[in-house]
């Protein structure tokens, strides 16, 4: 299904395996991999397998796997330890240059937050 990809897009190339990535999870509609410049250990990007720069460019069926995949990643990365205040995460999705978007293919950042003082993480 080449029509949903852009030949020049870094993240489309990652989906197609033309550029290597550290893949975590993949479904029919979504793909997740480690950020190459992590702001924290385990910093992960979750992307729809459809090329579009902004959230509203992506059809709903390509977005439907994104949040369930994010929930699985939270468990995989051990970020949901019950009763622990020293561990958490941010979910971030930038749209447009003014909002600090650098790669024009929709991606959600899953950024672990760990309190080093408690020894967690
Ligand atoms: P943005 O600022 O567009 O929301 O974030 C783009 C993110 O993509 C950055 O955190 C950057 O480190 C990451 N990134 C850019 N190019 C690559 C790449 O080729 N591989 C991986 N794994 N991450 C990338
Ligand atoms: Zn793309």
CATH homology group: HIT-like
Average pLDDT over all residues: 93
β-strand number: 5
Distance between the termini: 40 Å
Q: What ligands does this structure carry?
A: guanosine-5'-monophosphate, zinc ion
The sequence of SSEs as H and E is HEEEHHEE
Structure description:
This is Adenosine 5'-monophosphoramidase. It comes from Maudiozyma exigua (Yeast). Residues 10-120 form the HIT domain. The structure is a single chain. With 121 residues, the chain is an alpha+beta fold. 18% of the residues lie in helices and 22% in strands. It has one domain (2-118): HIT family, subunit A, CATH 3.30.428. It has 3 helices and 5 strands. The chain has a 5-stranded antiparallel sheet with strand order 1-2-3-5-4, covered by helices on one side. The longest helix is centred in the middle third of the chain and has 11 residues, at 66-76. The structure holds guanosine-5'-monophosphate (5GP) and zinc ion. Residues 10, 19, 21, 33-37, 45, 94, 100-103 line the site of guanosine-5'-monophosphate.
How would you summarize the topology of this molecule?
Blueprint: H1 10-16, E1 23-26, E2 30-34, E3 44-48, H2 60-63, H3 66-76, E4 87-92, E5 108-114
Antiparallel strand pairs: 1-2, 2-3, 3-5, 4-5
Bound molecules: guanosine-5'-monophosphate (5GP) and zinc ion.
Zinc ion is lined by residues 6, 9, 11-12, 51, 105.
